Amino acid sequence: MINQYIQEKQNEINPLIKDECQSLNLPERLKQPLIYAVEAGGKRLRPILMMASFEAFQPKSTDKIIHPALALEMIHTYSLIHDDLPAMDDDDFRRGRYTIHKAYDDATAILIGDGLLTYAFQVVSRSNQLEAEEKIYVLQQLSQASGLEGMIAGQFLDLQSENQNLQEEELNNIHQLKTGQLIRVAIKIGAYLGGATPPQIEALDEFGRYLGLVFQIQDDILDVKGNKDDIGKPVGSDEEKNKSTYPKVLGLNQTNEIKKHYMQQAKKKYDDARINQPRLLELLQIFGERTS
Amino acid sequence: MINQYIQEKQNEINPLIKDECQSLNLPERLKQPLIYAVEAGGKRLRPILMMASFEAFQPKSTDKIIHPALALEMIHTYSLIHDDLPAMDDDDFRRGRYTIHKAYDDATAILIGDGLLTYAFQVVSRSNQLEAEEKIYVLQQLSQASGLEGMIAGQFLDLQSENQNLQEEELNNIHQLKTGQLIRVAIKIGAYLGGATPPQIEALDEFGRYLGLVFQIQDDILDVKGNKDDIGKPVGSDEEKNKSTYPKVLGLNQTNEIKKHYMQQAKKKYDDARINQPRLLELLQIFGERTS
């Protein structure tokens, strides 16, 4: 049931994000890697969360959430492209395919990343589905979450943490910035545009915070236990780079315990929001137990 | 007189852009290179043009133009940081100092660039000086001009043009995208926020287009004839990278003729806008004849 929902949303998002990029008037040699980048697929977790959060309040129409959802996925995609660069995490594969700088070159990867980031803000600012005030809210939230105090600080601290022995608290901080901010803002923007009350937004924001942690912990677990074909990149790549991960800091058993604890906390916050619709909870469940 | 104006505006912009960055809550090792990047100074041409364009219609208060002007300079600064990377133009010096990736490292330069770009949109979207509709206009214009169809395509084509023999038309196209778009949008946003009529905005937009070309042509001339201490980077660096420049394509004499022609065209467009204030014209004059 929830898997079908995810599939439906992916089928909705994939052509739309490609169309947005196809519509650009670009030199062919620039458009090609752009399309390659947005076709890479992936789970589309962030836009799906945003849409599910919106639909918890507005089950009938999703028009209003489309542009923010596409923008968020563009920001996520840009961040992966830049993170994969040799100067950063230096990853050659993602989702079973060459990363952009391997398929093209570093300059192209830098520019496509810059372009997707800029385009995200453009897509929201010119949307014909949102009022000016709504656009401003979305742009403020997106730029804050993905900016220097958010995702970028997270990636910076993560790079600095290679070969360091971190404690759980520092690890939590890095992940709340690096992956948590975009997941959290997905839920928050969805709820806001859907018309949630301020207390509901607050509760869901906390739900999103725990969901982000659960997602990252599962990522770390998969890097230890996963299967290359499932996760699309070599297993053990965190280990190889000597990155601090939850299993390394806490051991696998305690990592699983903590994940369970955060899932329970998330559920509590979700109950606080008093929504008669379990979809976000089902998403929490499935992303906390995914195998890829 | 106009030099004093430029100096005054620089003295206004420099502390403000630094303050915006200082106010961020960042790890020290991330804040340091950020401040280094925005303190690099430079002419602040783009925000000055935006402010002068605004003041042509609103001579009394400049509050409304400050955040868009700072955002534009942040976007310009990010573009220089990324362009200077080894994977791109590979420049070690700018404005007489080490470029960010030389002073720090490539990862830091990529992240600081990403951060300044994102912050530009944040600074406008949260501005307390602008109405929601004004913010949206500014964000649309900035993201369009600096995006894939604008500045990024220009940088991409410029990189591809190394070792190519371009014709004047292709060279114009690259420069109108790479440097022209931001100069043009400076003028346009200034006029719009100042309350210019649509025909005035249109005429000034064309003025901005010619001004951008004049600026780039003078840049190329300085790369041939300039003095390292004046321009802050080695003379002849375009030649060394085998880049097409106006002097190379057209010879120095004809390059000077074309510059003169574009300056005349710019002046015509300025006259069409019917503004009782010569400051933008004086800026055209001085930037077209600058020695650094």
UniProtKB/TrEMBL annotation, chains A, B:
Catalyses which reaction(s): isopentenyl diphosphate + (2E)-geranyl diphosphate = (2E,6E)-farnesyl diphosphate + diphosphate
The cellular component terms of Gene Ontology attached to this UniProt record, alphabetical and capped at eight, are: cytoplasm
State its Enzyme Commission number(s): 2.5.1.10
The protein's required cofactor(s) are namely:
Mg(2+)
Q: Which organism is it from?
A: Tenuibacillus multivorans
Q: Which UniProt keywords apply?
A: Isoprene biosynthesis, Magnesium, Metal-binding, Transferase
Record-level Gene Ontology MF annotations: (2E,6E)-farnesyl diphosphate synthase activity; metal ion binding
Tell me which Gene Ontology terms the entry assigns under biological process.
Answer: terpenoid biosynthetic process
Keyword Iron-sulfur recorded: no
Record's SUPFAM superfamilies? Terpenoid synthases
Similarity-based family: Belongs to the FPP/GGPP synthase family.
Q: Does the keyword Transferase apply?
A: yes
Name the UniProt record assigns to this protein? Farnesyl diphosphate synthase
Pfam families named among the record's database cross-references:
polyprenyl_synt (PF00348)
